[in-house]
Design brief:
five-stranded antiparallel beta sheet; binds aspartic acid; nine-stranded mixed beta sheet; 10 helices; alpha+beta
């Protein structure tokens, strides 16, 4: 039977007779499930501490935004993901994985799980979501996804490719959503170009694991009591031009619903897409009345296995309970969370305990 390695937030109990309530978590993030082993990282001149430090920095910044007056989870998720997109370690924005032709085609999505009374559009006032796919010239795809979510009258939910970028790169939209135009070469880092050069392009034993490390995602629980999820990626390294993964698919790799939880997935997008995994986790909680832990375990157990691990996901519910799940063969997932008091914790490999970052 397919074994699951689901990691749950380590709860700290007080020594008194009654266990202390688990800490409320308000922000969770991942930096991708295709984690390289320590040895593989060393070959790349990298360490897991570098990833953890940048994840912690992004989480702390997102937490600060979450606590600013007037800001919502949308602002916090966008702020957290933007920082990770600007860090070339992760497979999103600056460090994004490239297509087989060495070009960046970026995907991102953001979903606001708010269900009552906050929608501004006429089409579906109760739910907001925005996504972009095949982005080639916008520095921060998560902000582009937000711009789609906040289109007047909720006109569209997803824009694709250079034609979609035309709307996003109009002056008013660029200013309002802090969108910056960059040449595609901005994304083509030496490390990512090496992955697509035929002579360097030897697959590791964990076939394909190098193809997808570093996608980023985040879920916030804000002062409205709403859950917001966002994910951003370059997709799989060496992907065919035009390929779309789970990340920008609402309900595939990104989803949020205030009646259940917010979810961001990372891994082989085709698998998550076929199983509508993010929506599956929400459905298990909403209709199956499962706990967040059971919902995450169950959704991952339904996925087929593959060498190098199919990936993982993070989820956060309205009570501030988080679950971090990984498929059996996944080496790890860069992951972290922030408590309501602002304590930041991170971990990388499947067996790692949480480490507080002060
Ligand atoms: N899920 C992403 C995709 O398939 C890749 C990843 O998570 O690393 O596009």
């Amino acid at each position: 039977m397919f074994r699951i390695a689901t990691l749950l937030v380590a709860l700290v109990f007080s020594p008194s007779f009654a266990p202390a309530a688990p800490p409320k978590i308000v922000l969770v993030a991942h930096g991708g499930a295709g984690v390289l082993t320590a040895e593989e990282l060393k070959k790349e001149g990298l360490t897991k501490e570098q990833f953890e430090a940048n994840l912690a920095k992004a989480l702390a910044a997102g937490y600060a935004v979450l606590n600013e007056k007037g800001k919502t989870g949308v602002d916090a998720v966008e702020a957290t993901v933007r920082i990770l997109e600007d860090c070339d370690l992760f497979n999103a924005g600056k460090g994004a994985a490239l297509t087989s032709e060495g070009k960046a085609e970026l995907d991102a999505a953001i979903v606001d799980g708010t269900m009552i009374g906050s929608g501004e559009g006429k089409r579906d006032p109760r739910k907001r979501a925005g996504a972009v796919t095949g982005i080639t010239e916008i520095k921060n795809p998560i902000s582009a996804a937000r711009a789609v979510m906040e289109m007047p009258n909720q006109k569209h939910a997803m824009l694709a490719g250079p034609r979609g970028e035309e709307y996003l790169l109009t002056p008013d939209v660029m200013i309002k959503f802090r969108l910056e135009r960059v040449p595609n070469s901005y994304f083509q880092t030496e490390r990512r170009l090496r992955q697509v050069r035929p002579k360097d392009n030897k697959q590791t034993k964990r076939d394909g694991a190098d193809a997808r490390f570093g996608t980023v995602g985040c879920v916030a629980l804000d002062s409205r009591g709403s859950l917001v999820a966002g994910t951003s990626t370059g997709g799989l390294a060496r992907k065919l031009p035009g390929r779309v993964g789970d990340t920008p698919m609402i309900g595939g790799g990104t989803y949020a619903d205030d009646r259940a939880c917010g979810v961001s997935c990372t891994g082989t997008g085709e698998v998550f897409l076929r199983h509508a995994t993010a929506a599956d986790v929400v459905g298990r909680m909403r209709h199956g009345k499962q706990t967040i832990t059971d919902a995450v375990n169950g959704a991952i157990a339904d996925l087929p296995d593959e060498d190098g691990g199919v990936g993982g996901l993070i989820a956060l519910d309205k009570e501030g309970r988080a679950a971090f799940g990984m498929s059996a063969k996944s080496v790890g997932m860069y992951r972290g969370y922030v408590t309501a008091e602002g304590k930041v914790f991170v971990a990388t490999y499947a067996g790692d305990g949480w480490r507080e970052v002060k």
